[in-house]
Amino acid sequence: MARSRTPDAKPATFAELPALLSSAPHRLLFLAGAIAVLLSMAWWAVELTWMRFGLGNWPQPSIPPGWGHAMVIQYGLFPLFMFGFLLTVFPRWMNLPGLSRRHYVPVAAGVFGGYVLANVGLLGLPALLKAGFVVMLAGYLVGTTILARVLRAASNRIDHAKSCLLALMLGCVGLVAFLVYLFGGPETCAWLAIHIGTFGLLLPIFFTVTHRMLPFFSGNVVKDYHVVRPRWSLPVVWVLLLAHLLMEWRELLAWRWVVDVPLALVFAWHAVAWQPWKAMRPGILAVLHLSFAWLPIAFVLYAVQDVIYASRGELLFMRAPLHALGVGYFGSMLVAMVTRVTQGHSGRPLQMGAIAWLCFALLQVVTLLRLRAELGGDVYLWLVIAAYGWLVAFLPWVLRSAWIYLTPRRDGKPG
Question: Membrane-spanning residues where (predicted)?
């Protein structure tokens, strides 16, 4: 029997580090994602500071800064965590052997390597920006191919795996569209890539994973909990999201309410059907339900925005619905789910802990600050405050998470 490690286990030495980090998909990719959480927002915070206050010769990207922000966040930051999670759970979902280093290390190298190059490229270096997205696409293609092979080998090809794989395939399409733009194509290709990132890649995967894991976790902990996981949810949400994506891309805002009102109702139904009032303990379960609450809120904002625009021609709230979705739902669920996986796969108790709670609580404040920016006044000042707030919220959580990824499991088990 392996001897349990003490709570003050030391990080691996430099020689041991490659083997430790590559011992499980989540270690390598979650560490890369944790770095990206700070790197992406650090650049954006400085960029916003330059816009609001001026920073002398701060280098400007060769593309609109907002587009750069959207692309590296949506295709770099969040997907690092998503690939780390999916490369771990895909085989488990379908009762197949786990993947080996030769499968997931190239994915991490491609997605994170491309992400870093693209971020450097945003400092006025267009050649590196292009190279970064090319390398990132290569990482996506490797990761998507590996997951497709796992799905093909399974006798039980579950809907959740199919949904996640479809989203990653759309992510590849989005990266191709953005590269077309970078190499001289029309701006509409960039807009398509950005909208695919939100409504074809991130939201389908986040909702699919929530749909599978939140009722499962709740049912395992809460007595007399009724597990609700309807099969109709995923196809209905997929159809509505694709319609929303196309309407966003083609700027058919007057008709967007046709899909956003049903999406708000579907997501609100799930929020109630998953009985959050029964799942407020332990905290590591409660935060999953609290994070999901941002999804119906975001689409209620979208629906109200759409109805007002269709009736009066006024676009209220601006990007508030988008950031209720991106910062509120994606950001909060990232903290909730990654904390759970990190705790469990490091041999630690399934508890939030003070640092994770602090990050989660501050992130709710950051979300509200970002929404406040859309209500007028000194908009860029509010944006700067929210961006630096993100860094303050995440810094302790990132440092603690990185320590865990660089430290052997407490229980002495592999992985």
Answer: 28-46, 66-91, 103-125, 131-151, 163-184, 190-209, 230-247, 253-272, 284-304, 324-342, 354-373, 379-399
Say how far apart CA 112 and CA 17 lie, in whole Å: 17
pLDDT tens per residue, range 275-319: 999 999 999 999 999 999 999 999 999 999 999 999 999 999 999
Nearest Cα to Cα of residue 387 among 33, 35, 39, 30:
39
- What is the CA 299 to chain-centroid distance, rounded? 17
Q: Is the peptide bond before 282 cis (omega within 30 degrees of 0)?
A: yes
Query: Distance between CA atoms of 191 and 188, rounded to whole angstroms?
Result: 5
CA–CA separation, 88 and 154 (whole Å): 15
The burial of 23, by beta-carbon neighbours within 10 Å (0-12 exposed, 13-18 middle, 19 or more buried), is given as middle
Task: Write out residues in the chain with pLDDT < 70, as ranges.
Answer: 1-9
- The CA angle 189-195-196, to the nearest 5 degrees, is 85
Q: What is the pLDDT of residues 273-282, one digit of tens each?
A: 999 999 999 9
Looking at residue 10, the DSSP 8-state letter turns out to be P
Q: At a CB cut-off of 8 Å and minimum separation 6, what does 383 contact?
A: 48, 52, 370, 373
CA distances from 247 to 198, 257, 268, 303, 353 (A): 13, 10, 22, 14, 42
Residue 76 · residue 115 · CB < 8 Å: yes
- Residue 74: is it exposed, middle or buried by C-beta count within 10 angstroms (0-12/13-18/19+)? buried
DSSP-assigned letter for residue 373: G
Q: What pTM did the predictor assign?
A: 0.96
Q: Which long-range contacts (CB under 8 A, 24 or more apart) does 258-261 make?
A: 260/299, 260/302, 260/303, 260/306, 261/303, 261/306, 261/307
The answer to whether 102 and 162 have CB atoms below 8 angstroms apart is no
Residue type, 35: I
